[in-house]
Amino acid sequence: MKNVTDSFVSLGHWPAAGSFGFNTDILATNPINLSVVLGVLIFFGKGVLSDLLDNRKQRILSSIRNSEELRVGAIEQLKKARDRLRKVEMEADEYRVNGYSEIEREKWNLINSTSQNLEQLENYKNETIQFEQQRAINQVRQRFFQQALQGALGTLNSCLNSELHLRTISANIGMFESMKEKMD
Predict the structure, then answer these.
(1) Residue 31: CB partners within 8 Å, gap ≥ 6?
(2) So what's the pLDDT on residue 19?
């Protein structure tokens, strides 16, 4: 500390002008040089530094205003996005509910349609069975009548002799002739 105070005290004892040299005492020359440089910087750089700081301040304030505007815009967009999300969620719920009810309605329509188709098939089956039964009954009747007719013809052929046969034919011819005369 003594060296620092000694360097300030010795400021008034500068060597004569005739000798020029470097002072290698760092502790003695640095405070003087720093104080001179700082004084010059403060005197001449005050305006420049003030302008730089004002410009920086204005840029920071402008950035803050822009950030605030962007924040407000982002908040508005967030609100709009949330509103759209709520609307889409409501529509999705509505579609889901409508979809479930539509599926349920389609299920019941399919069940009813299938039930009607089964009922129609059952009716067709019953009609087919009745038709086949009627056809079988008719076939049985036809065979029965054929057999009865063959039996009757066999009986008639065995019972009829040629004289009875000729009398029956002439009686039938007589009936046809009388019918013909009535018609004319």
Answers:
(1) 4, 7, 8
(2) 65
The Cα–Cα gap between 13 and 99 comes to 104
Provide the pLDDT for residue 8.
47
Name residues of the chain where pLDDT drops below 50: 1, 4-5, 7-9, 11-12, 14, 16
Q: Report the interhelical angle of 2-9 vs 26-159 (nearest 10°).
A: 120
User: CA dihedral defined by 14, 18, 20, 23, rounded to 10 degrees?
Assistant: -20
Dist CA 2 CA 25 (whole Å): 14
Q: What is the DSSP code (8-state) at residue 18?
A: T
Q: For residue 28, with 0-12 CB atoms within 10 Å meaning exposed, 13-18 middle and 19 or more buried, which class applies?
A: middle
Q: What is the dihedral of CA 73, 76, 80, 81, to 10 degrees?
A: 60
Give the Cα separation of 114 and 121 in Å (integer).
Answer: 10
Please tell me the predicted confidence (pLDDT) of residue 20: 65
What pLDDT is recorded for position 9? 47
Give the start-end residues of each E strand in the chain.
none
Return phi, psi of residue 20, to 5°.
-125, 135
